[in-house]
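Chain X:
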Amino acid sequence: MMRNCDLCQLLIFTSLGFILASGSVEAKKVYRWIDEQGDIYFSDQVPPEHSQHGRATLSQTGRVLEVTEQAQSKEQIEQEARLQELRRQQDKLIASQKIHDKALLSSYHSKEDMLLAIQSKMELFEKQKDIFDGSIERLTEQLKNQRNEITALESAAQPVPKALLDAVMLSQIRLEQTQNALRSQIEKQEQTKKIDEADVARFLFLTQSTKDLLPRTKIPSIKEANELGLFYCENDYQCNKAWEIGRNFVNFYSTTEPDVYNDKLIMNRPPPKDTDISLSLSRLAINEGDYQIFLDIRCRSSLTGEALCASPKVKAIRSSFRTYINDALSRLALNKKAPAP
């Protein structure tokens, strides 16, 4: 058996040639494997202490005839299964995003089309709110009159009819129901408004042309980039560095555990609590060789969660993303480690 080292690498391959060419070992197999330290071995036998390593069976000319994969531990098998599951989730996420993008592009021809559609929806919301406001005003006045009638009867020491008491209770119930319906309508309107704003930003991003993006003056302004959580990559090297820096940013601010990490998507797990936020990064192609990194922040799908996502705290995290990437890249250029956010 022969072992690799810096001084005898040439001897190994020379010896391998003799082993393979020797008639005395013509019927024997020659194995090649690498141990944990990266040392390469050639031999016609695999010692028991090295049997767990993956190996290749070589022909007399050095051609690989067969490959035996390295034995995997239970933990490695479980990790591989988890990796495959994450990849399936990633594929679903990307497919879902593509479907949404396709729907946006097929539904609208311009930003103006989107804004007109949003305006129509908001006008409908306002009309429905006016109806609720009118009902609340009417029920409030009705309840006031009913209570005044009861007060007048009690002042005159007259019995209050049960029908009147029942009418007051019914008015109270209807008033509360209408007030709750109005609050629900307002919350739905706010949620729709946030979704529409995100769709407008996404549509604008998808419809940017190569011609628009090549001149520096056409790249989104600092204000727009901060508001949208965008970082424009000047080249592949910078984009790869920014991607790793962005991963630290995502893990630092997310209150949930990491879920997906690859060269196109970094995503932490969905928020299980109202106080949780989950960040994700997407590396999105603008055109051949040009990319933008998009930061997204998700909150739990609840009133409290949605309020958190609309809060100054979350907006501040988003707006700090581009500056943090730039500062960290500058520090790396000076051979200094990128700081924590």
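Chain Y:
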Amino acid sequence: MAEILKRKKALSVNPLKASQPMGGALATLGFNRAMPMLHGSQGCTAFAKVFFVRHFREPIPLQTTAMDQGSSVMGADENVVEGLKNIAEKSKPALITVLTTGLAETQGADVQRNVREFREKYPQYNDVAVVAVNTPDFSGCVETGYASTIAEIINVLVPDVEQAQTRPGNRQRQVNVLCSPMLTPGDIEALTDLIELFGLRPVFIPNVANSLDGSLTDEPFSPVTIGGALVSEMQTVGESKATLVIGPSMKKAAQILNKKTGVPEYYFDHLYGLQANDDFISALIEISGQDVAAKVERQRMQLQDAMLDTHFMLGQLRVALAADPDQVNGLAHLIQEMGGEVAAAVVPAAAPILADLPIDQVKIGDLEDLENLARQHKAQLLIGNSHAVDTAERLSVPILRAGFPQYDMIGGYQKTWVGYQGSRQALFDLANLVINFAHEEIPVYHSIYAQKPDNERERICH
């Protein structure tokens, strides 16, 4: 059991955390024809939009209630109601999420009441789903904001089993998949292919693979998301045969879904490495009743071979981790599975899974804490987002970019980490970094009997 070291500093130095509203916006962007609206100042939304655009390199739909000095003091209820009306009228979305910021929370905003007022004042927009979520950016991180938003979307949009008159298993080939924010669009694409190999149809909640995968479409500019999970499918998830829950942060959302529908759940902390993927494949066999495809068996053997090829580089390697709790947990298990050691681990916010990490200590802190711990424990490699690149340079160690945001490389958002193939590539990437940045080379040996220059031989003879 890991010891959790809480933060003691009065401020963050070189922050690791990205805020809860960004996590809520990311969850919203995984739905088709959706629009996140941040209840706060224009700067809050502009800052989040810059992060998303630099990470995904795509236009990102994001709106704001534009609180100013007056509404911050006197109240901004009208900003929310009229903001919802304008978005519903001009953009015609299927889903709008109202996400609070630190300013709105400090001001005392009640966004759930604001949504009810919007419904009463503008009943003509009742076909637009509106979900309000409290996501203050002075607490939590991307992961907690994302998880809270998915939980509230399920709570509002998924009908109770008695109300909908549905029964789990009516759709024998359909499975729900609740995805942690550690899953990239590339991860979800890989999982889609894997689940379909077992004759199942996955319904991802949310599905950023279809909306943030960087594909070009023939459609003209759209003010809302193109692609993603259909809001209408939230009406049918109660008929699925099972729910696959990937990431400990999604547990609350899964519990709400189970309570409303009765669909049985299968929990997976992560899908990094051999053992975790073996467990996932076993669940798919049980749900589908089908045998493993030869393609999947070959991918498993390829991962085993990669483990043999890379264990010389990764065994006893000291690694420093900086990411949200779900991802730190998955990476820590992958490193441990290869015989490596997590020398330092820093997360931006607390989570129940931290106590079960396969390491001695985990620090709730920032990148300054990571740098100090990594130097103290002589870390040889760092895994973190693009903000940690300067930290790695000061430590003179290589860095493998993971998490959000990644703005100094192309395609980081699309990288596949999960499954046998994703885990195999992660091991190759780690091993190549070790090889290319090795600092403990054996010095060149010069024999005393080697041929000497003539003047050197004469000096020795005399």
